[in-house]
Design a protein that fits this description.
By secondary structure, the chain is α+β, with helices and mostly antiparallel strands. The chain has 24 helices and 36 strands. The structure holds pyridoxal-5'-phosphate. The site of pyridoxal-5'-phosphate has 12 residues, from helix 5. Its cofactor is pyridoxal 5'-phosphate.
Length: about 850
């Protein structure tokens, strides 16, 4: 790493900056200290001193609603006018030739142009857009009543422009393109604006430049390129404020004359009743288009933003060469990464542009990763690991459908077919038919430094470059097949009464019931967000691990304790359904983008606790507005016969069955062999092997780098297994069999030889990095798991299991004895070849 640092050619790296970029980072971007932030195309962070300057401005001035006579109002008006001019100058736009309209963001600017163009001519308008466009630009086509065309390449645009001269039309035409692709950073030719205008020769052809991505790391000189409309968002340049602009060439202002809507300050006089008459403001384009009260505080913030930016970085040109230099470093270093067999690790998606050349290429890199066998590494797996390593990138189609499809070679027909089978933006269908559905994107910003590039390349090298051929795992049992010598037993039993919260360890010596849907009382409740209705997960709220429920069967209560020993609070609720404060609700699982829920309908019915005491208990502890909810018992709704016993809580509950749940008299669905099971309750029991946890910990220690707690062993609890199985070794010195569970087909447990089927491996995410006793996140064990337990692109640890259907064959569920397990029970696995 240090070698790379000394090779820095100072010519491009932070040239013109107020000081060394590392110093700027230290002083003004302390939030970036412990993270590798490479999502500047999403938003760049704001400088600390900018917020301080803005805060001082706000606390030392009284700003009133603009456009009246009071002093405070006058102050806001003048400041707004000043900032408007300042922004125009920032883009070298002559105020005689251009006007600036403040809008919410780039999308609002684009939509404003489209809406006005539609109103401007009764025939509507024609629309052309470049394939590399952001969704906000593509969407305009829905308003284009006179047809639209997507230009699939630069050449198509170049061929179309000369045709404009001979092909004049009365109705307006609009051509839109991004100044820079937000997908791969390619910079498109700005000369098109001028070329189109001269070819159309006064005809009704307008150009819309989506500059949102470009302006984040490049100067934009509107005096030379002069698009009719330019859309951008300021947060992408300065990090703050959340505000956008539409910059209009005044000579194209006629487009706005027939805009139908008016509101707030955009009119001179309105008759509210009687005749439908109003007089629009004639004075300027922005006065006619800025409806309602301007976001004047945000506009004032822009003043501090521009000043601070200039003070730190000097100019956009400096930022452009700094980021171009770093992007070239990143690109060059990623493209030479090779596996042991000389195959490339990164497939980089770019146009015919050159990294390091700011005219054609911005500092964004889109790519995917392959294994030495040429298989694509799923993007969500990379994202999970990056998250654990505190690296922030973006994945998916990054709002650039055309660019993504082109890069990955998808046709529209293919994408529609995949959509109809469930592919959605942001979901985890990473690879379909052997091809990736999205990309990984690393994007740089003004304050990106060499360390960020080093960390990112190191990350790819450490986790994705296969230096030696993968070792084919030996089947552990084939060697000495003497399973009788090997005794597995239940080391511990846990249930998680509240989904995603702490474990309740079943006391030793107590037999615990196993049902079809898992261990009794496991995931019976969950916490739901009171606004969205979505179930909370520990992945997002690690403090949930500190919410510890315990089941007291004797008293018929669930006792929930929160927090550390010193300041614990607790709550007791009944295990029965007689609690009258229950209200019904439904859980929208779509918010988690799981395909599973589409299979069984969008909603799972739930019963939320209406008591304010209950919701306050959890909301106060987590700092999230939430409440407790209870799942309907799956055995009642789904698997059991119609009721014969009355008066049990299950029966009382039956009347609550809601849409999306299964009718009560449906026979248990037969489990199809090989079919991926979809509902969580079909993966009822999670089995974790102590020997595997031990092996994993040895690996973590052996591979540990320097750093606080880096090589510390992890507790088996992080895997949140229901049954932890350990080995009782026959002779001293016998070796354990880590990962023997990979080959298990079934288990027999305890004195009654309870039959358990072993199902899929449990796919892991960064949640295993949350210490279940402190609620703190670390990078292990996920980092080591990703290296050592990557099975078919998925990180797996532990096996799901369920009571075997044989247990129920020909039996009446309610009539038979309870099936139970206990800590210490002997476990006899059966093995399958896989
Ligand atoms: C970010 C971006 C947009 C959308 O910006 P919003 O602030 O979300 O409106 C549009 N186009 C490009 C090229 C972008 O990068």
């Amino acid at each position: 790493m240090n070698t790379a640092a000394t090779e820095r050619p100072p010519a491009a790296y932070n040239r013109g900056y107020s000081t060394d970029v590392d110093k700027i980072r230290e002083q003004d971007y302390p939030l970036l200290n412990d993270t590798t932030y490479l999502d500047h195309a999403g938003t760049t962070p704001y400088a600390k001193s900018m917020i301080e300057t803005f805060s001082k401005d706000m606390t030392s001035n009284l700003f009133g609603n603009p456009h009246s006579m009071s002093l405070s109002s006058q102050l806001s008006t003048t400041r707004t006018d000043d900032v408007r001019l300042r922004v125009l100058r920032f883009f070298n736009a002559d105020p005689d030739e251009f006007d600036l309209v403040f809008v919410a963001n780039a999308t609002a600017a684009i939509k404003l142009v489209a809406d006005c163009l539609r109103d401007s001519d009764h025939r509507g308008f024609w629309y052309g857009y470049h394939i590399d466009s952001h969704t906000s630009v593509v969407g305009v086509r829905e308003l284009a009543e006179l047809n639209f065309q997507c230009f699939q390449s630069d050449v198509e645009v170049d061929n179309w422009i000369p045709e404009l001269a001979s092909n004049q039309t009365k109705a307006p035409r609009l051509f839109a393109f991004p100044a820079q692709s937000n997908l791969n950073g390619r910079r498109l030719p700005l000369r098109w604006c001028e070329q189109i205008r001269s070819a159309a020769n006064g005809g009704n052809v307008f150009t819309l430049l989506d500059a949102a991505s470009l302006v984040s790391t490049s100067p934009l000189d509107l005096s030379s390129s002069a698009p009719d409309f330019t859309a951008l968002s300021f947060y992408k340049i300065f990090g703050f404020p959340n505000l956008g602009a539409l910059i209009v060439r005044k000579s194209a202002g006629r487009v706005f004359e027939r805009r139908r809507y008016f509101g707030g300050g955009t009119v001179d006089m309105v008759l509210a009743a009687g005749a439908q008459w109003h007089a629009k403001k004639e004075s300027s384009i922005h006065e006619r288009l800025e409806d309602g009260t301007l976001p004047f505080h945000s506009i004032i913030a822009l003043d501090s933003a521009i000043s601070t930016h200039e003070r730190l970085f000097g100019s956009m040109a400096n930022i452009s060469s700094h980021t171009a230099f770093l992007a070239k470093q990143l690109h060059d270093r990623l493209s030479v990464l090779k596996h042991w067999n000389e195959t490339s690790v990164c497939q980089i998606y770019k146009g015919n542009s050159t990294y390091g050349c700011p005219v054609t290429q911005g500092p964004i890199i889109a790519f995917n990763i392959r294994t030495s066998k040429g298989e694509w590494v799923p993007k969500t797996e990379v994202e999970k690991l990056a998250t654990v390593q505190n690296i922030q990138i973006r994945t998916g189609s990054v709002c650039n459908p055309g660019g993504t499809a082109c890069s990955l070679g998808w046709t529209g027909a293919e994408l529609r077919r995949h959509y109809s089978t469930g592919l959605r933006c942001g979901d985890d269908h990473d690879v379909l038919g052997g091809r990736p559905t999205g990309i990984l994107r690393a994007s740089l910003g003004a304050m990106t430094n060499m360390k960020d590039i080093d960390s990112f390349v190191d990350f790819i090298e450490e986790f994705y470059v296969e230096k030696v051929p993968p070792i084919v795992a030996l089947n552990p049992l084939v060697e000495d097949g003497d399973p009788v010598d090997r005794h597995f037993y239940i080391e511990s039993l846990s249930v998680f009464p509240i989904k995603s919260c702490g474990a309740f360890k079943i006391p030793e010596g107590k037999r615990w019931e196993v049902k079809r849907e898992g261990l009794a009382w496991d995931r019976e409740w969950c916490l739901i967000h009171q606004g969205t209705g979505a179930a909370l997960s520990q992945k997002r709220y690690p403090r949930m691990s500190l919410i510890r429920p315990s089941v007291d069967l004797d008293r018929g209560i669930l006792r929930i304790t929160c927090g550390y020993l010193s300041d614990q609070v607790s709550l007791e609720i009944s295990l029965g359904w007689e609690d009258t404060s229950l209200i019904s609700t439904s859980l929208c699982q779509n918010s988690s983008n799981k395909k599973a829920t589409m299979v069984c309908g969008d909603q799972i019915s739930l019963h939320a606790y209406a008591s304010p005491v209950v919701s306050a208990f959890f909301s106060d502890f987590l700092g999230v507005p939430c409440t407790l909810a209870r799942f309907p018992s799956q055995s009642a709704t789904r698997f059991s016969r119609p009721p014969r016993l009355s008066g049990t809580w299950k029966n009382k509950f039956r009347k609550f069955i809601m849409p999306g749940s299964f009718p009560p008299d449906l026979p248990p669905p037969a489990r199809e062999q090989g079919k991926r099971l979809t509902l969580s309750n079909e993966m009822p029991i999670l089995v974790v092997s102590r020997s595997s946890v031990n092996r994993l910990n040895e690996t973590i220690k052996a591979n540990s780098k320097q750093g606080i707690g880096a090589g510390k062993a992890v507790a088996a609890d992080v895997f949140r297994g229901n049954i932890v199985v350990a080995e009782r070794l026959a002779r001293l010195g016998d070796a354990e069999q880590p990962y023997a569970e990979d080959h298990w087909g079934g288990l027999r447990i305890g004195p009654d030889q309870l039959r358990i089927d072993v199902l899929d491996g449990c796919q892991r995410c960064q949640m295993v990095c949350i210490d279940q006793f402190t609620g703190l996140r670390r990078s292990e064990p996920f980092s080591t798991l990703a290296k050592t337990r990557n099975i078919g692109g998925k990180v797996t640890f532990g096996r799901y299991a369920a009571l075997s259907p044989d247990e129920f064959e020909g039996l009446d569920l309610e009539a038979t004895e309870r099936r139970t397990v206990m800590v210490g029970d002997v476990v006899t696995p059966t093995y399958v070849d896989n």
